[in-house]
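Blinded run. Sample ID left blank on purpose so nobody reads anything into the name before looking at the predicted structure. Input follows.
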Amino acid sequence: MTPAITASTLPADWRDLLALTKPRVMSLVVFTGLCGLLAAPVPVHPVLGFAAILCIALGAGGAAALNQWYEADLDAKMKRTRNRPLPAGRLDRQSALHFAVGLSVFSVILMDLAANHLAALWLAISILFYVGVYTVWLKRRTPQNIVIGGAAGAFPPLIGWVAATGHVDLLPMLLFALIFLWTPPHFWALSLFVRSDYANAGVPMLPVVAGFQHTRRQVALYTLPMSAAAVAPWALGLTGPIYGVAATLLSGAFLLLALQVAASRETDPAAMRPERRLFAFSIIYLFAIFGALVVDRWLLA
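Blinded prediction complete.
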């Protein structure tokens, strides 16, 4: 008989601690935070700018680690997450909790010292929202978990901007709205072809409780206000034509893919090509649109 996998038989190393921070997700968080900082209309000392982005990375990593600590039982039931350090038994829960809390608290303190009180406050709010509101309260209770919980991932550009300027403006609020509205179609596209994973774990994602077609329609519907939020900075004169053209073309491509998802009737996850294309493009979309923002601000400043 194969012995049970425990933390004592598979000791953790630095890679397991890194995995707790969800580095692939963190890369998008750090990038949007960096773009928020670079788009701010004030010069930022490179050392202080680096410290602010490091704080956003550490805060995001700490929140992700707390998420994995709390959801270890769910992760063990899903094929795509069961090899994470906690469900695989490579790390004990107490060590994970200490690591997660330490990262989170340190990130807020360092942000307060390196940038300003308001940036530290927004960072603390983002961590608490992701852990307390999304992970603990919403995820296991409602199919609206991603809709409301999407705010957690929308904070980084706002935090980056506030770290640079010390105050909140309309542009970072629109960037917040863009990511907030981007989150549902992004995650619902994923949940369509990993529906069985969520069903097995008892997570009430939209395809599990409302079916494939309703979810596909919601993907297309949410793309409309997302596209409006993306183009709004240009329409309101807050950015130049480089951003405006990029936002328009990228959002048009996103909408086209979303309509293909809405038209699909496929129920076999292996054959859900429109859903997979939209999920992959949604990541490129956010990187590209925020990259265009920085190019626009720097070239046209």
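Unblinding after everyone has recorded impressions. The CA atoms of residues 186 and 280 lie 9 Å apart.
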